[in-house]
Input
Amino acid sequence: MQMIDYGASLSVLEAILLGIIQGLTEFLPVSSSGHLELAQALMGNGGLNHQNLIFTIVVHAATALATLVVFKDDVFEILRGLLKFKNNEATRFSLLIIISMIPAVGVGLFFEETISQFFFGNTFLVGFMLWITAGLLFVADRPFTNHRPINPKTAALVGIAQALAILPGISRSGATIACSLLLKVSRPKAARFSFLMVVPLILGSMAKTILNGDLSQTQSQMELLPYIAGFVAAFVSGYLACTWMIALVKRSKLKYFAYYCAFVGTLALIANWL
Output
């Protein structure tokens, strides 16, 4: 989970802006962590504090909820199938999700803090990684005969792509969808698997953040409105981005995001040079 840094205080306007950035970039293949790093560089970097921790949890909860709402029918069918305690489609799909999570969990547990410190404020590396995302999207958007199902091997490879997306500038959705398409998975299944596989990771990352952070401090002097504004902004923008992204993947429109990532990556490189 990318920790959001904004200094000692957060206004409602800043909360809405960061919520929109989180909601849009969590689903669109443009790297949420990369954009948050660039946004923090523009807004000014502050030290991590208690308020940062809570706001990070709030906006990630909003994007997780947006995913569950978009795929509510799929989630309901999976839960209903699991409750039958049989080797059915829901059980097999859940197993694929677990397989895909293993690489990201390993990287997150052992390398997340080191990577975050290495990339913090480093617009050059973020820009370079955005160019890598652009290349992945451009190649994956080429026409393929996509009809293969998602099997354990495919889930593991897509999971490795998701683990690499811990690098700010590498889009999680872009990397996982691109990897699925290159493995000849059908476009609807690639989008569905990419978005559903991240929900357990978001919830797990939230739990890890809560356990590692000190949430025992009093909230009496902290304004509630920025958190509400950030949650609503992240949920609404996330819901719209998720539904839009599903349609774009089906219509082979990823190359436009490749152009965008290359453009933003270039701006980041120029800003670093200046």
Residues 12-273 form one domain. Residues 3-8, 46-50 have pLDDT under 50 and may be disordered. The first helix runs from residue 12 to 27.
